[in-house]
Structures are given as structure tokens and as C-alpha cells.
Amino acid sequence: MLDYVWLVPFLPGCAALVIGLFGKWLRTRSGYVAIAAMLGTIVVSLGCFWDILHGKGPFTQHLFTWISVGEFKAEAALLVDQLSVVMLLVVSVVGSLVFIYSTGYMKGERGYARYFAQLSLFAFSMFLLVLADNFVLMFIGWEGVGLCSYLLIGYYMDKTWAADAGRKAFIVNRIGDFGFLLAIFLIFWTSGTLTFSGVFDQAPVIYKYGGGVVTAITLLLFMGAVGKSAQIPLFIWLPDAMAGPTPVSALIHAATMVTAGVYMVVRCNVLYSLAPTSMEIVAIIGAATAFIAASIGITQRDIKRVLAYSTISQLGYMFLALGVGAFAAGIFHIFTHAFFKGCLFLCAGCVIHAMAGDNDMFHMGGMRKQMKITWLTYFAATLAISGFPLTAGFFSKDEILWATFRSGHLILWLVGLVAAFMTAFYMFRSLFLTFHGESRAPEKIKAHIHEMPRSMTFPLVVLAFFSLVAGFFSIPKVLKGSAWFEHFLHPVTNRGAEILHELHVADPTPHVPELELLLMGASTLIVLLGIAAAYAVYIKGWPEIPKAWAQRFGVFYKLSFHKWWWDDLYNSTFVQGTIRLAKAAWQFDIFVIDGVINGTAFMVRSVASRLRKLQTGQLQAYGVGMLIGINLIVLLFLLTR
Asked: Is there a contact between 23 and 114 (Cβ–Cβ < 8 Å)?
């Protein structure tokens, strides 16, 4: 099946082209074309996984030479190894479920065919990104998902706030992408190649451990990841990305765009292992993002924004894992996160549909009675993201916390633990406010709350199932498991560690099973405390306790509710600064550049208007003038002799 891996990006790419050209005639059948293409990618991805599992990889498929200029060559080549095949499965499976869900969610919407064309193009770009054999092709996929996110976030283009959100996502990501592009230039300048195998094989020879060049390269690459995967300070675009249809949010958060930065750093683990300063920065940024985003999620009222900040926080955990060298743990959290975050967003879409477009959780309540499937699946996914024992999130998040503690970053481990408490608290807060208690919806809406059709509930059930069981792919050895997922990714994720071991730079830290079990118990206790606190406040104490806490902890409440004033800071500095600069440039253009040109023209026109009066058209006047002139010349000649 590896020989047919080209079909993975080809199928959704063709679907995007066909729907884009013939969507006017296909209409509602556009969704079926897109779904058929995505189901085809699942078949091919499973076949590739089977081949890789049985030792047939890594496999490189050269399609054609794309660019050839002098010594520079960029091949259109696809790479299938343990890392890329995991991402293929995540994107194809979760993406297909989102496509199926979209047929029900987007029913009756204007631009139905346009939506599925853009969604298919999104999948094509992500497949290209994860299958790329070199940095140039990866960058094309990287920019492709950025373009598609702009189109889909601004899907409701007739609404100003949606168009603004799309532009915000596009502009903020351009900042990170500039760093990624500089890194590509620097890699080619120092290594002479842009293929992954060529760069990574040479890395230990051409880059000194901790050297300035490899540090610059990895920090520039991380700058791209910070933008794409919404980390501090470029995370501000992701909450506003909720302006697009909810299935788009599910696709962006669970299976495509925001995971791209994590994937790229893991793909470049050889380079990062040679840059300890960069690794420290990655870990610190990840931990800080996990904490700050979780603290913001505690007070948000919009259910989609709560999930958006949850995504930012979980991405922070992933980068924390990468920063301490636990690359497999970071990918495993991508794998589990795809299921429970996809489930949560699609459940939120069902709730918003039932509420006639209202996202405010304070207007909901009691919905579990009319929407039992949505409630049960949301509950399962909430358990998973909170890290409840034996769910998918429990295994992946605990692996990150253990790796952080084992690496000696005790402060970062503590930050991650506090973020875990807040995650459990705000996620169960969203569950209780939405589905429990008495309904706070207006009577007109309350009468029409009902469960969604099968096209929307079927994906929820599948995702909820994997949210509960996906963690068993990597049961840690301390719990008598085989850590299969980590073992499967070992050929890719441990290349950097093996190089450092060969260079005698780093040795593995001894493993203490008893300590790991103790820390696992501590993180479990923290999660249970977060759930209990949410229950006490939003079930037993609603609405008095939340109001009392908001008053008692006014400063912290405002800090959280106003999102640490990040948007205000950017608006008052970069946005307003850019506007002031633009106005100054406009005034310089008007008064200086145009002033000089227009002033010169005015002077010439003024002189010409005066000289024009000498042209009377009377021959007698011209004759007198000539006579006077001749006399003046003769007089001047006589005087100068």
C-alpha cells in the first residue's frame, strides 16, 4: 500500500477541484464527494500503517522534480515513516468524522458546496504537510492550511466579525511563518540541502552542540510553530477563530492546523537535541501557555471559547513535552487530544444548533434531558481531557508530567500540575453549566431543544469511544504495559537522543517506578479535586458561589475574564501603532511627496500663466517688442566696447 500513498493528498485535492468547479450543479451532493475522498484516505492510511508496522518503512516516494535551479533542487516527494503514518491516521479518521458531521450541521447554509471545497482543500494541505519529504514541500502544506483556515474562519464573509477573525488568524500566522521561512534559508545555506534525511544525517557534523547556528535555526522554526500552534505570544488568533462554523473549529483544533507546529518540531528532533537553549525555551513557553490559557478558560462564558483556550492549553502541554525531550509523549498527546477535542467541539456544535446559535453557557442548563447522546459523549470527552484515570487523556498527560519531572524541571512540572487542576475545573464547569441544573434558555428556544440527527451524533459516539480507549495504545511499563506507542515511534523520535548519547552529551536518567506511581497518584488527586471543586461551585453552589468568588477574587477574576489583557496590549501597541504609522506615512505622502510634486507643478503653472500674457496675437505689438529688443542689444554692444 505504500506505493499508493500519493492517493492520500490526491483524493481530497481532487474533491476540492471537482466541488470547486461543479459545486453549482452538485449542490448537497458536494458533501458526499468530499466524504468519499476522505474515506479513501482512511483505507490508504491504514494500509500504510500496516506496512510500516511490519517493517517496510521508512518509505520515500519521488513523484517529480518540482524546482531545479543551479545546485538547488526541490523534489515533490512523500515520506512515510512511523511519525507521518500516525498523523495520517489522525487527520484521515477525525477529518472524515468532521466531514460526515458537517453534512448535518451545514444543511441549508448558503455556500454549502464552497464549504466542502475549502474543507477538502484543508485536508489536502494537511496531508501534504505531514507527508512532505523536505522543508520546501512542508512549507507549501504549511501555507496551505493557513490559507484554508483564513477562508473557513471567515466563511460567513458577510459578517464583519467573521471577516476580521479570518484576517487576524492570517496576519498573526504570517509573523510565525516569516521565522519558519528564515529557518529554511539558513538550513540550506549551512547544509546545502532541504531534504529531511540530508539535513538530519549531516546535523551532528555541521552543527556544533549548543552552537549559535543550530540555536538560531531551531528558534526560527519554533517561531513558526508558535504561530501555527497558538503559543505565547501568538496565541491570540485561535479564540477568535471560533467565528467559523463549529465543524471547522473541530477540524482546526483536533486534526489539522494547530497540530502542525508540534509535528514540525518533532520531525526536527535531531536539530532540537543539538540546541539545549532552544529546548529550554520550548519547555518554558509550553508550560506558560498551558497555565495562562487554562486560567483564562475558567471564566469564559462562550462554550466554544472555553474549548479554544482548552486547545491552547493542551498544545502547551505538548510543547512542554517536546522541550524536555519527550517527543513521543508530545505526539501521543496529539493522538489522544484529536479524539476528545474533536468530540467536544462537535458536541458544542449540537448544543449551539439546539440553542438557535446562542453560545453562552449561562443561557443553557438542563440540556441532558433532551440531548442524552450529546451529553454522554461530552461527558466522556470531558473525563478524557481532564485526565480522569484510565481515559485517553490520563495516559498521555501523565506521561508528559512524568517526563517533565524526570528531566529535572520541577517548577515546570508544578505549573503543569496546576494547569491540570484548572483543566478539570473549567471543563466540568462547562459540562455542568450546559447540561445540568435547570434550563436558563428562553421559553421559545427551550421548547425546541432536541437531539441532533444521526449524521451528527454518529461521529460523536465514535470520537467519545476513542476518547476513552485510545490511551491503552501506550500503557506505561510501570502499570505493566508495553508503552507500545512510544516503542512504535522510537525510530523517529529517539534519533536526537541517540545522537546526543553518541556525542557523550547526555545519558538517560535512571527510572524509579515507585516515584512514577507516586506522581501519577498526585496528578490523579489533583484532577479529582478539580472535578469536585467544579461540582461544589456550579451544581451545589450555583449561582451564589460563582458571584461571591468573582467579588472576593476580583483582581484574579478580571485577569482571567479579560484574558490577561493580551488583546488589549496588542491593540494598543501593534494595531494602534500600525494605524498611527500608516497615518504618518499617509501625511508624509500628502504633504511631502505630493507637496513637492504639486508645488513644482503649481510654480510652473504660475510662471506660465504670467508669461502667457505676453502672447497677445497682435503683429504690431510683436514688432514693437522686436524693435525694443534690437535697440537694447545695440545699446549693450556700444556700452561694452
From this structure: yes
